[in-house]
Amino acid sequence: MFIDGKWILRDEIDVINPYDYKVIEKITANTRDETKNAIKVAVENKEHMRKLSANNRYKILMRLAEAVSNNKDRFIKLLAVDAGKPVKQGRIEVDRSITALRLSAFYAKELRGETINSENRLIYTKKEPVGVVGAITPFNYPLNLVVHKIAPAIATGNTIVLHPSSKAPLSAILLTKLIENTLKKMKIPLGVFNLITGHGEIVGNEIATNDNVNMVSFTGSVEVGKNIAKNAGMKKIALELGGNNPLIVLDDCDIDKAVESAVKSKYLNSGQVCISVGKVLVHENIYDEFIDKLMDKTRNFNVGNPLEDSTDMGPLITSESADKVENLIKKAISEGGELITGGMRRDSLISPTIISVRENNSLLNVETFGPVLPITKIINMEHGLELANKGNYGLQAGVFTKDINKAMYLAENLEYGGVMINNSPTFRQDNMPFGGVKNSGLGREGIKYTVEEMTETKTIVIHNDFNF
Ligand code: NAP
């Protein structure tokens, strides 16, 4: 859609507001050939980016951070109407994106290698850009997850072909306009950054399989991630995928804090967060009290129009997603789960739902990507650990306990990319390493760590015959 500095605008895909199902915009469905062309343009511009000084890469990112900040309200509105994100959560996403841009600017100047001891030789390493980064992003954080890929790519001197989710592409399109202005002002060739909209299985697939792309940085579902891993060939890949994230609540913890954390985590963005709590594993001594307090907190949730300031939870991204979540609720109940609250649906809105389940319930090992909280009893810490490590996901886990020994034992033994002690699995700070094990992904994001993934280490050895 924005290739080599030219906008290709065709009314081919409806962008739909998930709250009222109105068409808010029409965007281009780029073809495979157009995607190939965008990749070719990115290849042709590799040298420009590689030779761009650290200072200029820093400037692009700082100017972009300022531009996003100046357009905050526009971004927040776009996140509400195309991704269904309540404005108060949209504000946080935009602020995080600005932080990620500034952090990336810092790392543009911090790219450095090392020297290695050797007699009569100087061995040193330097970081070089991989070349062309293909970035493919999902609908749920459609601005921040784009920034988490393109900002480190710019910081490290790579050119970019970006494919944002066709379900929520509008913030990426606005960001592209800001990038265009920034590059123009700095007289940098516009072909260093290309945006491809359209159907993921065509344009995303081309990015993932094209031999001229040097690295694919993908965030999305396990299914698509595995497909990319299978077809990527000899390019670098980074995969940030789905999860079912446990929250273990032991009987010595601050129950109020644990309840608050579980509720905040589960209903953020209607449960459409990769690190949303997927199961709460609560010690039997505090199970009933935990559920009572959980219901109290959940009762006050305001579900409705994302554009209204008072809304806590908006719709799911599509009616198909709401169908999927509704079916998962029915299945969990048919397997013996007890519906504690919620389970109601209007259009794509699903009410905050809590289901008490036994440990063999299928809900404990799927990614619902909806506002459904399964909760189950554990008899002790070891039992919690066993249930948490069951299954194929390994993104982030949370633990509530006041006992440092138990906290350390669980941190050591939970098979997850991150363990949050006395917080939910949903905690993420944009400069910490972030990513999963097992089916939850490959590689780490978090600006410094993405910078590492988006560079190659070159080793230079200078031999010296001089006898010291
Ligand atoms: P998705 O369906 O996998 O889509 C992600 C991206 O892949 C979209 O841009 C999509 O394009 C594209 N795509 C679809 N088919 C493709 C193919 N065959 N080849 C290449 N690209 C293709 O995921 P989603 O529904 O947007 O997002 C939800 C998922 O993302 C959840 O599983 C969630 O856990 C995961 N997620 C993970 C993280 C993390 O950091 N670990 C963060 C956020 C979300 P179209 O939309 O145009 O089809």
TrEMBL record:
Lyase keyword on record: no
UniProt organism field: Methanococcus voltae (strain ATCC BAA-1334 / A3)
Gene3D superfamilies for the chain: Aldehyde Dehydrogenase, Chain A, domain 1 (3.40.605.10), Aldehyde Dehydrogenase, Chain A, domain 2 (3.40.309.10)
Enzyme active site: E240
Name of the protein in question: Lactaldehyde dehydrogenase
Residues covered by the Aldehyde dehydrogenase domain: 11-460
Main function: Involved in F420 biosynthesis through the oxidation of lactaldehyde to lactate.
Lineage: Archaea, Methanobacteriati, Methanobacteriota, Methanomada group, Methanococci
Keyword NAD assigned: yes
Pathway: Cofactor biosynthesis; coenzyme F420 biosynthesis
